[in-house]
Specification:
Strand content: 15-25%
Order of helices and strands: EHHHHEEHEEEEH
Mean pLDDT: 81
Number of helices: 6
Low-confidence stretches: 213-219
Number of strands: 7
Structural class: alpha+beta
Length: 219
């Protein structure tokens, strides 16, 4: 196995509320279904084609006020395509934005530090934050005392992961407790080895894509 760079000390995450929402939006965009014309099924294309052929034939062979119905058929086709593509995309995006607006960033992410070691991802928190240590994100982890309390997510605990241009996302399970972690790629400027994280994730879960259904329900 090749040697990868690791961190000597955990690096401050400094995740903001705006970044938290942006990360979720990027993940949504990355995983959202295609709403373009290519998303239309064969049956839909056949119906659309029949409608267009009938409308054009009517405009060619019929004259006078009777052509209005054929113009309406063409307009109906255009409206359907707009609703089926742009309209659906707009609706899903609005619903997603409502969900994100109702969520708050977990408090532990405000003061968390991340490190990368061969055995896993290190999560460090100030030792004077007992409430944060009891959060759902940190339950089930073995904490090491000191000026900061540290927990390690073994790479083998990662169940699924994904990435966008700006973030890496991972879902893990430890001792029946489920959690997730966002890693901003901007940390690379602070010598945080993003490439090492990706390499280890690819080794344990070769296929990208968050799959929360693979996590076992907590006992």
């Amino acid at each position: 196995m090749a040697l990868y760079p690791y961190t000597l000390q955990p690096v401050a995450l400094n995740l903001t509320e705006a970044e938290f929402q942006q990360a979720q939006y990027e993940l949504f965009t990355n995983a959202s279904p295609n709403f373009g014309l290519s998303s239309l099924k064969t049956k839909e294309w056949i119906i659309i084609a029949i409608g267009i052929i009938l409308a054009v034939a009517g405009l060619v062979f019929v004259s006078g006020y009777s052509t209005i119905i054929f113009w309406l058929m063409l307009v109906a086709v255009v409206i359907y395509l707009l609703v089926r593509t742009i309209g659906f995309k707009w609706y899903v995006k609005k619903e997603f934005e409502k969900q994100v607006a109702a969520q708050e960033m977990p408090d532990e992410m405000r003061q968390m530090k991340l490190g990368v070691q061969k055995h896993g991802l290190v999560m460090a928190m100030p030792s004077n934050q007992p409430d944060l240590m009891k959060s759902s994100q940190m339950r089930g982890m073995q904490m090491r005392a000191g000026a900061t309390q540290q927990a390690v997510i073994p790479w083998t605990a990662i169940k699924s992961w994904d990435e966008t241009d700006d973030y890496i996302f991972m879902m893990f399970e430890m001792k029946g407790q489920q959690g997730s972690q966002i890693v901003p790629k901007r940390l690379k400027a602070q010598k945080f080895p993003i490439d090492t994280v990706r390499q280890h994730l690819q080794e344990v879960v070769p296929i990208r894509g968050l799959q929360p259904e693979n996590l076992q329900p907590p006992a």
